[in-house]
């Protein structure tokens, strides 16, 4: 599970192939919107939730999947990349759990991520 007390997460880069790790968890009417990967861990945005994948152990065969339904998000914050600082961030505040932060690197469309989350919250 995501360490909500640590409030940090890994640097992510867009990777459409990473979504394959969570296809077995999808509901019948749930669709993958986008996926991002760090060295081994990743996050997948679906039409219903955000699924964070924490790959564990030397072989990587053990995985922890944390599901964050959009309905549990009470607020979020987006920080876009700048001229010299190419990283961007997404902070999500969850009811009765706390906050989790995702850090993205590269050309991540934080506007599209923000619109997708807003569509479910507003």
Automatic annotation (TrEMBL):
SUPFAM superfamilies: PH domain-like. CDD domains: PH-like_bacteria. InterPro entries: PHb, PHb_sf. Residues 14-120 form the Bacterial Pleckstrin homology domain. It comes from the Bacteria. This is Cytoplasmic protein.
